[in-house]
Amino acid sequence: MIREIVVPKDLWPRRGDWRGKIINIYVSEGDKVSSGDQLFEIEIEKAVLVIESEHNGVIKKILVKPGDDVRPGDPVMIIETSDD
């Protein structure tokens, strides 16, 4: 099954519009990943958070690059999952 990996909406507890910045991407297109593997880092105000995979599968497409601004729910990458 093809799924989008998105910027989690619950990263920051405050309400309202916020933005983050992609700091680092740990995977490449074609990489196999397992649940719990680190995918990317996002900076939100003064915090840098590492986002992990929730699925086993293969990274099909990366939609952002380091330095890109993102908002909650923005797609970051496409994964073809093998755990469905």
What would you say this structure looks like, in words?
There is one protein chain. The protein has 84 residues and is mainly β. It has a single domain (2-81), classed as OB fold (Dihydrolipoamide Acetyltransferase, E2P), CATH 2.40.50. 0% of the residues lie in helices and 49% in strands. It has a four-stranded antiparallel β-sheet, with no helix packed on it. Strand 4 (38-44) and strand 5 (47-52) form a beta hairpin. It is globular and about 35 Å long. The mean pLDDT is 90.
Summarize, please.
With 84 residues, the chain is mainly β. It is 0% helix and 49% strand. The chain has strands at residues 2-6, 20-25, 32-33, 38-44, 47-52, 57-62, 69-70, 75-81.
How would you summarize the topology of this molecule?
Layout (H helix, E strand, L loop, with lengths): L1 E5 L13 E6 L6 E2 L4 E7 L2 E6 L4 E6 L6 E2 L4 E7 L3
Antiparallel strand pairs: 1-8, 2-4, 2-7, 3-6, 4-5, 6-8
